[in-house]
Every structure is written in structure tokens, then in C-alpha cells.
Amino acid sequence: TKSIPYTFIRGGYFYFSRRVPADLQQHYRYPRVVQGLRTASISQAKVRANIAAAKLDAYWSHMRLIKSEVIGLSLVKEPNLGAGLLAITPCTPIKKPSESPTLLDALDMYLKQKGKGRPQTFKAAAVRSCNYVINVSGNKALSEYTRQDALQFRDFLVNRKLTGSSVTRNFSYVKAVINFALSELALDIRNQFTGVYHDRAAGVLVRKPIPIDGVHKVQTECRKIDDDMRWLIALVSDTGMRLAEAAGLSKADFIGLDCDAPHIHLIKHPWRNLKTTSSQRLIPLSGQALWAAKQIVSTPSPSEFAFPRYNTQSNTAANSASAALNKWLKQYVPSGCTMHSFRHSMRDRLRAVQCPADIVDQIGGWQTDGVGHSYGSGYPLDVLSVWMRKVT
Fold first, then answer.
1. What does DSSP assign to residue 112?
2. Contact, 104 vs 55, CB < 8 A?
């Protein structure tokens, strides 16, 4: 545990351990402070150990300050008052300069309330962003953060070579955590992390759609090779699904493949969540996507997964799928195009047949603006199928 100062591991869990300074040991019953950090995670242990060390340093500085000689103490009219102010015991609490919660308190509140039913990535992203702030400025009370802290946080992210969109995402999580705590506790405190300027376009690559001849070329190669990886590519190419959505399908999600309206019922699974609420949808199957779906369902396999190589009962390895498929794909598509480019291509292909924008949004699982679009169940499957057949 040398990489995490003041810690040791016992029984798989991290413990904080720090020797009491010699000049303060008379205030303690033991010469060392030891406290369980209640985590087996390296990243969490590092944050909690740093916070514990910072709190101890502040407390010990307070003890030394009170012990030091105060100029003019002999002039105080009530000597007992001066003595009382200087009295200190190890149990004397140090009052916080503010009653507002710390950033970690706000994060805990945010995750307990807003994290219900959300994927693990939601929690991980919020924790990571707040840990960045703590690494830069410490775990302060929300009222103690200054504009300088926010600017240092921005510079920290930029110096890590994050793209403009990644910087924006980290700021979004920090702002959301702080705003939620301020709203819940009705605190009149300004969120210093709002309105911080940064170059949002820095390092951001424009996603390119795959030209239609490139799409057809890839589909032809998929039919020649005819294996599970090519089925996944063909399925994405003629549905516009996100790769993680397609890779996490079960065989039961394919419905009516031999009927007039074959489709995918895209829903959440224990091993794969969905990005947004609008991502849960019915996706008509036609063209090469229908071919791929029939190959998947007709192939004998004891697994319930459409793509067993990328799934376990608890996780869909979407990153592994992306790396493997993009490596094969790049020889057939223009430079800069990836598996996600099929999603951009599908949007263009639907535009090309003059498909209404709200139908495009429903097929792709994009959020449609406007209150009215949240009413009802959307377009029926047969209407969606008409437009998808025009595309394919």
C-alpha cells in the first residue's frame, strides 16, 4: 500500500494509520491513530485516507495554535476566560466554519437519491468527477469552494489532455451533485463551478457516417464470413442500434422473425442497461439486420445470449466488442469511421427517404424535444416497419 499513504490492508480492507506528532502525544492515550476506512477499493481508500490525513493536520494545527502563547493574554480582564479558551482535550470538537455539507456529503446524498435504478457507470462517473475536485482542492464544505477552486479544476482536467466534451461532462457531474445538495437543504450558496469557460471543441473528433456504398460493402463481407461477429455488425448496420444495445441482446428479444413485422424488443437486462428511458423501444428488422437475426436465432446454442462471447450474467463487454469489430471494420470504411458511424449513417438514410423526424427519433431511441412527444405510446410497429423497409 505504499502508493496510498497512511494505509495498510487487513482482511482485504484498508485501514488508516498515522503516528501522533511527539509534541501532541500527551493529549492521546495511544501514540498512533488507527481507523478502518470501510472499503476494499484502492481508489476509494486513497480518497478517504487523504481526507482523514487532511482533517488530522487541520486538527493538530488547531491544537498547536491554542497551545501557543497569545500576545496580550495578561491584559484580559477575566483570567479564567483566557484559561478556558486555551483549555483543550483530544475530544474537543473543532467547529466547522460552515454548516453546509462537504462535497463528499453532497455526493453521498446525490447517489442515494438520484442513483436508484441507474447503471453502475452513473455512480462511477459522479464519484470520479468529485474525486478530481478533491484531489485539486480537498473535500471542503460547499460554501468554502471558491472560483479559484473551479478554475484549478478546469486546468487540472485540461492538463490531463481530456477532450472538451470530457471536461464538460466532468463539470456537469460536479455541478449536478452540488446543485442537488443545495436544493435539498435549501442552502443559499452560489455554486462556484457554474459558468466556467473552457474550449468545448478541443480534441473533439467529428463522428463521420459511413457512405451507403461502404455500408453495402461491409454487409457483403459479413454475409461471406457469416460468423457471430459479422452478425453483430450486420445487425447494427441496418438498425442503427448502439453497439452496447445490440451486443447485450438475448435471443428472446427477437420477435416474429417469420411474420410480417419482425422486430427487436429492446429492453433492459441485468447484464446490460440502456442509456436513456427512450432507448427502450421496438426496432423493425429488415435487410441485412433481418438476415443476421435469423442466423442468431437458428444457430444451436445453450446460451440465452444472442452474442455469448460478449456477455456474462452480470455484464456486457461492449468495449471489447467495439475494439474487436472496429479493428476488422477499418479495412472496409473511410478513415475515421467506426461501429458508431452506422448509427449516424442510419440517421442520414432515414432522412434520404424523407422519414419524419419524430419517427427517426423513435427508431433510433433519440429523445424528441417537446412535451407533446411524451404523450401516448408512439408510432405503431407497422408504421416504423414501412420506413425501415424503404431504407434497406
1. H
2. no
Report whether 361 contacts 277 (CB < 8 A). no
In angstroms, the CA 327 to CA 359 distance is 32
AA identity, residue 88: I
Instruction: Tell which residue, 329, 345, 356, 357, has the closest CA to residue 392.
Output: 345
Above 80 in pLDDT, residue 93?
no
**pLDDT value at residue 26:** 86
Other Cβ atoms less than 10 A from the Cβ of 114: the count is: 15
Q: Which of 71-80, 198-207, 271-280 comes out lowest in average pLDDT?
A: 71-80
Apex CA 367: angle with CA 366 and CA 371, to 5°? 155
Taking the C-alpha atoms of residue 232 and residue 321, their distance in angstroms, rounded to an integer, is: 9
Q: What is the pLDDT of residues 113-125, one digit of tens each?
A: 888 877 778 888 9
Tell me how far apart the 2 most distant CA atoms of the chain are, in Å: 97
Mode of pairing for the β-strands spanning 13-19 and 32-36? antiparallel
User: Which stretch of 83-92, 122-131, 193-202, 322-331 has the lowest confidence by average pLDDT?
Assistant: 83-92
